[in-house]
Design goal:
single chain, about 75% helix
């Protein structure tokens, strides 16, 4: 019923609520119990301060984005890589890596770097598909490098430590960034025309609303404020969470406050302050409603015995652990073609995580595998939310959605390779949490 409603176009939140209510009624036969379960679940969820982590971390990223500090850091990386082939695409990956430490939302990274990096790559005669593929692909780092919204959602759904999940994502995130850079260098070496090598001239920057970062002057003072501000916020927030100085919710609040100070120091006005809050509210409110109904869905699965039945089915099927994991990952890839990442997580994680644990998979590394596999769906047609975000941000009619999808395929393949590496070597995810927490 749930999958049918979603495929018919019913909003995921409504589908979760309706399915949960019907499931509880079929088991108990009493509307009073349905009402009581909904009321108690809502009360518990709304009182849980963990839910405040998402809007606060998003607010931190929004303030830092509006401060211009990320643009300053990108300009500095760009200028520091002048002698390296494909430096603009590499700077985009490295810039996205830094931005991921403060935003936690892939879509925000895609929108920001479409405006920052694409105009300059276009001006230097980069292949437009290659340019946009590097932006869309590297934006996926936002879901893996802390503070990731998907990690917070996974932690809430599975009742895991969000701090440990944050730590577990650092090395896999660095691994993905390195693999992306290696691909870009290899592609530039095999086909120099992708990065403008051999071009007779350099075009003018013509993308509306773009930033010509190659010609932007960046003083040492500006660079110091930006790097010191962003680096200080990252160190204070994530360091405080990892070493137990404060909870993730308190850390998110502190990060938002520090980011607000940085934004005002860099020139953000009162209008920008209001717009930032409004922007975060529009994005965070639907997520929080989804989480509330996902909590009801999880409780329904437990009451009806669905989770236990599915786990028993797989345990008695005679399948090997790697076959079970393959089935789960394939389901995530297929769902990624039609619905967004958070919805996939809300629909599947309460069911598949107990199955994975029953087959002996490590809980932390399975979470990282799941997050990467689910996020890969943002690069796959026909939904491909990151692709449409990039397309909307560049305002370039000469580049179609199909071309961006095709140029993102190598990054999707690299994410699949990363999934296989973490399955084979779960210590990639476990090393930092075991060492620091």
């Amino acid at each position: 019923m749930l999958l049918g409603l979603v495929l018919l176009g019913v909003h995921v939140a409504v589908a979760l609520g309706v399915t949960s209510a019907v499931g509880i009624y079929l088991v108990t036969g009493k509307l009073r119990i349905v009402e009581a379960t909904l009321a108690s679940t809502s009360a518990e969820a709304l009182r849980d301060f963990t839910f405040a982590v998402i809007p606060l971390f998003m607010l931190m990223g929004e303030y830092i984005g509006r401060s211009g500090a990320i643009t300053d850091i990108y300009v500095a990386i760009n200028k520091g890589l002048k002698r390296i082939p494909a430096r603009l695409a590499i700077a985009t990956v490295l810039g996205n890596t830094v931005f991921s430490f403060v935003t936690g939302v892939s879509i925000a990274s895609a929108a920001a770097f479409s405006r920052i990096a694409y105009p300059e790559m276009k001006a230097h005669n980069y292949d437009r598909g290659f340019s946009l593929g590097s932006i869309a692909g590297s934006s996926c780092l936002g879901m893996l490098i802390p503070p990731s919204v998907l990690m917070i959602v996974w932690g809430i759904l599975t009742e895991q430590s969000i701090g440990r999940l944050f730590l577990a994502g650092v090395l896999p995130g660095a691994l993905l960034a390195i693999l992306f850079v290696l691909y870009i260098i290899t592609a530039a070496w095999l086909k120099p025309e992708l990065v403008g090598e051999g071009s007779a001239h350099v075009e003018e920057v013509v993308v509306e609303g773009g930033l010509d970062t190659d010609n932007m002057e960046l003083s040492f003072g500006q660079f110091l404020i930006s790097v010191g501000g962003v680096g200080g916020i990252i160190a204070a927030v994530l360091g405080g969470i990892w070493w137990g100085i404060f909870t993730p919710t308190e850390g998110a609040g502190a990060g938002a406050a520090l980011a607000l100070i940085l934004a005002f120091a860099k020139g953000m006005n009162w209008r920008g302050f209001i717009d930032a809050i409004y922007s975060v509210g529009k994005t965070a409110a639907p997520i929080l409603i989804l989480l509330l109904l996902a909590a009801l869905y999880s409780r329904t699965l437990a009451m009806t015995g669905v989770t236990t039945a599915i786990r028993s089915f797989f345990e008695e099927s005679g399948l090997q652990p790697w076959q079970v994991l393959t089935i789960i990952v394939v389901i995530w890839f297929i769902l990624g073609m039609i619905i967004d990442s958070i919805s996939i997580m809300l629909l599947t994680v309460p069911i598949v995580e107990p199955v994975a644990l029953a087959f002996g998979f490590d809980q932390l590394s399975f979470a990282i595998v799941g997050i990467i596999a689910i996020e890969a769906g943002l690069l796959t047609p026909p939904f491909g939310l990151l692709i449409y975000t990039v397309k909307a941000a560049i305002q370039d009619d000469e580049v179609g959605v199909q071309r961006i999808f095709m140029s993102s395929v190598p990054y999707w393949a690299i994410m699949l390779i990363a999934v296989l590496m973490i399955i084979a070597f779960p210590q990639i995810a476990n090393m930092l949490p075991d060492a620091l927490m």
